[in-house]
Design a protein that fits this description.
Elements (H helix, E strand, L loop, with lengths): L2 E5 L12 H11 L3 E5 L8 H13 L4 E4 L10 H6 L3 H6 L8 E3 L2 E5 L15 H12 L6 E5 L18 H10 L4 E4 L6 E5 L8 E5 L14 E7 L7 E9 L6 E12 L2 E4 L2
Parallel strand pairs: 1-2, 2-3, 5-6, 6-7, 7-9
Antiparallel strand pairs: 1-10, 4-5, 8-9, 10-11, 11-12, 12-13
């Protein structure tokens, strides 16, 4: 059985310094098989902010997979924003914007949704979607198929940010390719839900992490997720546990927990 640590929206440049070491300590205590960071490692894509993010990544349980977020593209430097959108990210974090990893019982694929021509809402590029679909379809039978991206494919009710214009279309394609779990951030709010995309379509799980370290809270605590598969392959059950920063910033403690199972129509909350 696998344990996935899911962080998001670290926003180096606007972090709470007192949470850095508690986050690292909590991560090591949980002993994940992989650490996943779904974008917005920095606040303004400055080199020093990427360097601080890289230092944190080096301290976290390995391997670590990351994708860029919209804040990881230079916003206020037009030449860099449009001509060298991911140069600093590639130099300090990873040259691979859409990494993939196989673990026992799990395949993780990723999509880069950061888009310099639409700073906030992002975009699923056609090439990236085709690559992700192919990687999902080629996964061994019975494994949990995980997709990581920064922007949620479908926004929950009440979300204040503009959704990706092609998010629903991409969600349909990923569902048809066998995706089980979609990890995202961006909204700085926590959520775990089984979404029936449309009558007759297979339901995927959408799990969102808030901000792990940032002061840019949206009325919620700093947090991260631990996702655990509850069965050997074929994987048909998993648990999502939210870890929340304690008052005073001296550590993280377990919060909400949600169990899900897979059935004939896809994923649903466990009874």
């Amino acid at each position: 059985m696998a344990r996935l640590l899911h962080l998001s929206d670290l926003h180096f440049g606007r972090t709470r310094p007192g949470l850095l070491q508690p986050l690292v300590d909590a991560a090591w205590e949980l002993k994940p098989d992989v650490t996943l960071i779904s974008g917005d490692l920095t606040q303004r894509a400055r080199e020093w902010q990427f360097e601080e993010a890289a230092n944190l990544i080096a301290d976290l349980p390995q391997p670590v997979l990351t994708v860029p977020g919209n804040h990881d593209i230079p916003l206020d430097r037009p030449v860099s924003r449009f001509l060298r959108s991911f140069a600093a990210y590639k130099a300090d974090i990873s040259p691979d914007l859409e990494p993939m990893l196989d673990l026992p019982g799990v395949r993780i694929v990723s999509i880069n949704t950061a888009w310099p021509f639409a700073f906030e809402h992002g975009k699923v590029r056609s090439r990236g979607l085709v690559r992700a679909v192919q990687r999902l379809q080629e996964a061994p039978p019975g494994v949990l198929r995980v997709v990581m991206l920064h922007h949620p494919l479908i926004h929950p009710p009440g979300a204040r940010k503009e959704p990706m214009p092609n998010g629903v279309k991409a969600a349909h394609a990923l569902s048809e390719a066998g995706a089980d779990l979609v990890l995202s951030g961006h909204l700085h709010t926590w959520g775990a839900a089984a979404d029936m995309l449309q009558e007759g379509r297979r339901a995927m799980l959408q799990v969102s992490a808030g901000t792990g370290l940032s002061t840019r809270l949206r009325g919620e605590e700093n947090d991260f997720n631990l996702i655990e598969t509850l069965s050997q392959p074929p994987v048909h059950a998993l648990r999502v546990t939210r870890y929340v920063a304690k008052t005073g910033g001296d550590g993280f403690t377990p919060g909400a927990t949600a169990d899900f199972v897979e059935g004939e129509t896809g994923w649903r909350p466990a009874d």
